Amino acid sequence: MAEKTADAKASLPRHIEELERTHTNIDVIETTQESPYGEVNFIGTYIAVMLACCASFAGFIMPVTSLQLIERDLGVSPNAIWIALGWILLSAVSFILLGRLSDIFGRRWFFTGCTVSALIGSIIGATAQQTEVLIAASVFLGLGSAGQLSFNYSLGELVPMRHRFAVNGFIFLATLPFSGLGPYLARLMIIETSAGWRGIYYLVIGLNAASTVCWVLCYHPPAFQNLHRNRTVRDELRELDIGGILLYVAGFFLFLLGLAWGGTVHPWSSAYVLAPLLIGVFVLVVFVLYETFMNLRRPLIPMHLFRNLDFVIVNILSAVGGVVYYTANTIFPIMVASLYTADPIEGGLVASCVGAGVCAGQFIGSWIAVPGGQMRLKLVFSAVGLCAFVAGLAGATDSKAAGSALAVCGGLMVGLLEVIVSTVVTIVIDDQSEIGTAAGVFGSIRAAAGVLATAIYSSVLLNKLTEHTESDVVPAVLAAGLPPSSLMPFLAALVHGRHSSSPRNPRRFPCRHRSWSRRVDGSVRESLPNRLARDSRFWPTRGVCFLFHDEYR
Predict the structure, then answer these.
(1) What pTM does this model have?
(2) What is the C-alpha separation between 361 and 350, in angstroms, rounded?
(3) What homologous superfamily does CATH list for 302-553?
(4) Which residue in 17, 328, 507, 529 is a FRET match for 302, CA 20 to 30 A apart?
(5) d(Cα 419, Cα 367) in Å, to the nearest integer?
(6) Separation CA 188–CA 344 (nearest Å)
């Protein structure tokens, strides 16, 4: 038995030979080497995580990608963009708070509370009578999503380190119907069922309710008294970094709000964008200085994390991955609606290619990460493949089959990379008592990178499309016979990806209608490839990072 234990520890990465080392003398950590897979509590916890993760993806992807269909019932609202922004902002801000506070006070009720928050949000969404109520639902859903998506450490700390990759595999597989096929299933549910769009929220209610029951009955991680030596809850509350929490929440929220508004809700030069953006950056700088130079026993983000080169590299890799993932999920549906098909159900299925590929890559990557070692080479291979597939997708404007295949393959490479870095971030840290904090920083940085990329690329795409529309489409369709009174409805339909059905009487001018469509297609073809091609420019950054990334066998 002693030999097996020695062999097990010898096979672990060299930086965690002292598994129970902490940065303080008041914390306790015990990294398990036992397999809990036959225990009822672990099985119940696994089911809770699986259901919660599915609910999180379903509660965001399905309504957001079907917003135009939902607005047909509730009415068009200028505030509809906040359904997505509310979820993203609350989710991004919550990752660090959840990770740090659950490291200190214990995870059980934080993670249960996150799913309860999502349950409340789904109930609000199911009963909404106007778009603004759906925004409130998204706030609760986004707040809960931080716990629902943090299974890389809620599960990871319950199993041996070498099993952390594989234990995530079936979670990713279970989320395929929602994170992968969510747009398709949402449209199918809205069009083909009597419940309509409310059926989405009914589904999320069921998932969240079942997950909550499993959390309460089966999730029993170390309680507060097992996490610290001779400490009380009052002691921890007294030393809680309230100043850091306030600075972080205010700065990060304002920064993300400015990014989210830029180029979409308001012009980048608008005070509505510049004010929160600049104030947010200033407050975040103050936050970093506060965390660095104040003598805090419990800083919100321990700055020694960033002295760990592996941790920094993993976060850079994740940020670049977030840029590509969020950008692809933003641009590819526009590409589908504008160039491939006007049918909402078929368009939803084709638009699901990126998400489905990511899910497949995450599932495969969780099982191939450890066997054979050479993790660095696996990452390099995936990065090179992704660069090639994204570049190919930029040119696939004429073939739906080629575009779909390249989107799946590109998503597959993203999934392979993301599952490795999201698990490695829980391993490279020197102090396993800070696993939640490290994973929270990781999640928030990735979300911020995604918001940044989405804002910039959406703005650039819109500006480019506007440029081509003004210089090419408008003169052409007017010259081809489109009445000036129909120009604005035609352009509005173009913005929503419905040019193939505009104007509503194509039979009166069949030849002209085809000419208009060709002009619009040409405008989109001129705009989209440049945006996708720029995605591939981020991958040399990953390649450089791989050179500095330690090999884990």
Answers:
(1) 0.82
(2) 18
(3) MFS general substrate transporter like domains (1.20.1250.20)
(4) 17
(5) 10
(6) 9
